[in-house]
Structures are given as C-alpha cells and as structure tokens.
Amino acid sequence: MKKAIKIISLIVGVLFLAAIGVGWYLYSQVSGAADRMHSPIEGREGGSERRDTQISSGDPMSVLIAGIDARPDEGLTGRSDSMILVTVNPNQESMKMLSIPRDTRAEIVGHGTTEKINHAYAHGGAGMAMDSVENLFDVPIDHFVSLNMEGFETLIDALGGIRVNNEFEFSNEGYQFSEGEQFLNGSEALAYTRMRYEDPRGDAGRAARQREIVEGVIEEGAQFSSVTRAGDILDILGDSVKTDLSLNEMWDYQSDYRSAVGTTDQIEVAHDGARLDDGLWYAIVPDEEIARVRAELREHLELEV
What are the residues facing 175 on neighbouring strands? Predict the structure, then answer.
C-alpha cells in the first residue's frame, strides 16, 4: 500500500513536519498515539490573542517546541531544556527555526516575575511558556509541542539513528565526536546536543547542534518506510510527546504544510551574558536584537511588521 499517512507533520515538535510512512491499516495505532499526545491548553482554545482572526489550515503558522529534560519518573514536567520557535509558510515553501537561549532574561507572563525564560514551563506549563515567548518577541504562537528528551533518545534509536556534520572534535558524557559527518544513535545525539562548555560559541553553539538534531530527525523521519517499526515509533510518540494539536488538525496540516519542509532557515539570537544581583547568569538580549527577530518572524508569518 502506498505510503499515505506522513504522520509527523506537526505531531511532534522536533519531528515537526517530518514524515513517517505508515499504511492506512495502522490508523488505529496512529489514532491511539494522537489521543495520548493531545493536551489542550486552557485559555488558548480560540488561538493566540496576538492574531486578529483565527488561522485556517494553509495559513502561515507558528509552533513552539520545548524539549523537557525531565527524569523518567517526572513525565513532561520540569524546566524546558531547549525552546525552538518554528514558523511555517506554505506559500513560500519555507520554515524558520529560532533557538531561544534557555537563560534569556524575560518576563514570565502570568507569574509576575522576570527570570530565565526556561522557567516559564515549570511555573505554568505550555500556556505560560507560550505567553512568555509571545510577549518577548511580539509574535503569535499558534501551537505547542513538548517532548521528553528521554523519549527523544528512544525515538532516534527507533528511526535507526541520524546524521549530523560536526564542526569540531569534542567529547561529552563519555562519547567522542570527531570533526565531520557523524551518524549518531539516541544517547550519542543527546550528548551531542548537551555539550556547551567546550564550544567557543557557548549556548549559541549548543542551540545550533539542537537545531541540527531536529533537522536530522526530520530527514530520517521523512525517509522512514518500515511499517514493522512504525508501531514502536507511535508508542514512543504517545508516551513522550504532548501537543494541543488534535489528530484531525494533524491530518489537515500534514497535507497543507508538507511543502514547507524543503527550505529551513535557522535564526540565532545575539545576546550578552551577565551575572545579576541574584547571583544567576542570564542571557541579555538587546532591544534592537528583539526588534530584528520580531520583524523577521512576523514577515515570515505574513503579519504587519
């Protein structure tokens, strides 16, 4: 049977717009996994308040991806270890991926504090994380996906590994990474993304590797065709991913947004580092950098700049 259900489009954040080829006879497994993943966000049922009208399938849209580096017994709780804002424009057949430094000093909307933006998820879950990122960049966020990083590791193994191109040799968590092209299993990929202190670019280099892993997963997912392993992958997704997207929305989006997978622009946020009076180190993003990122994202979403 023809590969029909290119299921990862918008299912999974880090698998955002990837495709796992499964046959229609796996529909019940897909449906079950989607039901376990589905987690509506209170107060955002009508969409982002930063849009004048609710978006329809086929309109440029945005998704906030949070990698939750929780312990296995914590599920999807805890602070977000990584945050990536993805904008998708099917009219331009392109995606943009913005890595948000996890130590970015920002207002935590709904909590009444100004602290590291990765604390927002711990304080108030997906809704507070979305509100805080929207407030920081003045960009509407239409959907949210969180992924337990332990599940991410298992998922990469289920896909058979991913390919990356390492810029320089380093070691981390017992693994040695040579310069050049590498093929990584799940635990290697997680160690690859977590290295920060040996990187001359610090968090910026770490964020670049996270985006590279995301793209690697998308590439492997789009080529995946083994029905014999599709059930395992769907189980992993059901246990490790939470999203406000319903199965019907995923079904619609995978068709309307699939063409945007081809071209991906990566955006980095320039920032300074400072240790403030509370003794914590923060990434301080200048106002002009916020304005630059805001303009690029809003233009990609076809919103007034």
Answer: 172
d(CA 46, CA 274) in angstroms, rounded, equals 38
Domain span at residue 43 reads: 13-152+236-300
pTM score of the predicted model: 0.79
CB 8 within 8 A of CB 20: yes
Helices marked H in the chain: 27-37, 119-137, 149-159, 186-194, 203-223, 227-240, 247-256, 287-300
72 token code pair: 């296995």
Q: Which tens digits make up the pLDDT trace of 180-218?
A: 998 999 999 988 988 877 787 777 787 788 778 877 776
Burial classification of residue 93, based on how many CB atoms lie within 10 Å of its CB (0-12 exposed, 13-18 middle, 19 or more buried): middle
CATH code (residue 48): 3.30.420.590
Number of domains in the chain: 1
Do the bridges between strand 143-148 and strand 61-68 make them parallel or antiparallel, or are there none, so unpaired?
parallel
